[in-house]
Amino acid sequence: MNVLLPASLSEALNQLASDATAVPMAGGTDLLVHWPVRVEAHERTYVDLSRLDSLKPLRWTEDELILGGLTTYWDVILDARARAELPLLVDAARQVGAIQIQARVTSVNFRLGLILAFCNRCGTSCSMRRSQARFI
């Protein structure tokens, strides 16, 4: 296993561009789960994005919650404004996994899991109230 630790988003993109087989990694939950059975993954190169501040968690505009690439379920659960303005989103985030997973799973897996949890929790006709969430 070879892990690259880029210091910037630009460096990460260059590393990924220079090695077509390199795999971007943020939370690493998929890697951890499949490690024992995917022996071929042991020889891959991974680009660890977890230290890139430009991808760090969520931020708000006047009327939107923007979830960055390193946003976790836990980031959403702990955000006071999300709890106040998007309680269904926070509730859906609480439905996925244990605290250890909520604190580690990043936006790529977060999006699918959150959408599924949100739909299961309130159905597809639910409104997210006056604020909207947007993924970047």
Structural description of this entry:
This protein has seven helices and six strands, in the order βαβαβββαααααβ. The protein is α/β, with parallel strands linked by helices and 136 residues long. It folds into two domains: 2-53, Uridine Diphospho-n-acetylenolpyruvylglucosamine Reductase, domain 2, CATH 3.30.43.10; 56-135, no CATH class. The strands form two sheets. It has a three-stranded parallel β-sheet with strand order 1-3-2, covered by helices on one side. Helix 5 (87-94) crosses helix 7 (107-122). The protein is flat. It starts with a strand and ends with a strand.
Keywords:
single chain; 136 residues; alpha/beta; Uridine Diphospho-n-acetylenolpyruvylglucosamine Reductase, domain 2; 3-stranded mixed sheet; 6 strands; flat
Layout of helices and strands, plus pairs?
Elements: E1 2-4, H1 9-18, E2 23-25, H2 29-34, E3 45-48, E4 58-60, E5 64-67, H3 73-78, H4 80-85, H5 87-94, H6 99-102, H7 107-122, E6 132-135
Parallel strand pairs: 1-3, 2-3, 5-6
Antiparallel strand pairs: 4-5
Helix pairs in contact: 5-7
